[in-house]
Design brief:
Structural class: mainly alpha
Distance between the termini: 46 Å
Radius of gyration: 17 Å
Number of domains: 1
Order of helices and strands: EEHHHHHHH
Strand order of the largest sheet: 1-2
Helix content: over 70%
Number of helices: 7
Amino acid sequence: MSIILFELGGKPVLLIDLLSAVFGLTTVFLAGRNSRYNFYIGYIYTALLFFMFWQKNLYANLILQPISLGINIMGQYRWSHPKKEEESASGSGELKVSMLTWPQRGLAVVSVLVMASVWGWLMSRTSNPLPYLDCCVTALILTAQTLSALKKWDCWIAWLFVNIANLTLYLKAGLVFMPIVSCLYLINGIWSLFTWYKLYRQNA
């Protein structure tokens, strides 16, 4: 997976970087279009990210991948096995898009801040070059993935923060290819924000 495909801005782009980008963009594109097939692509994406972060010594994001796998499995089940009152108005037996309450949003923000602070302090004792920023991204990703698994519209707000934080993380880590990919994630996130809002209004 350390095969160099080409150079961009004087930085090598590895095979695993390109594969991670392709599978990552595919899974979020499908999620934004309310397709349950995003989970199958997501399993491969998780495995690729594990090896990519291992190579780049971003340990908090590396540890995240087994947790992400568990969230993916939960999400696939929840999307296809909703309770009766949670079913989409389309009658397809799919979980409908819903929203968090304001107290729940406040709890989510506090949870991200606490998790990032504690985990960042622990990671600062390793060789991680950017412990607090790495762990902030990790906490945001966990929150966004959990909300996505529950089909909460708010997940796309979290993903927007993830993409902005990732841009900063990748640039500080000296990467060139991944910031470009993060921009594509950001565009998809904004589009999906409106797409899921329409789905929410259909079930309101």
